[in-house]
Write a structure and sequence with these properties.
It is a single chain. The chain is of the alpha+beta class. Helices cover 43% and strands 29% of the residues. The chain is built from one helix and three strands. It has a three-stranded antiparallel sheet with strand order 1-2-3, covered by helices on one side. The longest helix is centred in the C-terminal third of the chain and has 38 residues, at 51-88. The protein is elongated.
Amino acid sequence: METKRWTVEVFLTEDESDNVTSATAVLYTDSGRRHESVAHARRNPSDRPVPEIGDELAVGRALSDLAAKLIGDGAEDVAQLAGSARERR
């Protein structure tokens, strides 16, 4: 059985006023492919600042976008393989 290891790094930044948190999720595969997604969380000015909430929302959105991109890549690969299989008939 082969084990593969993919690594995800998440980078968080906040604007000067602590109103917007940005998260960048970067996935590195064993083969050297790199996938990146960026997302944001915006605090309502009437809410008290709780940085952990912005972190959770921004990271969750970035990882969700990354997951959607990976699913799309996989679907495209399947479609290409299916197309090439039809061409060989």
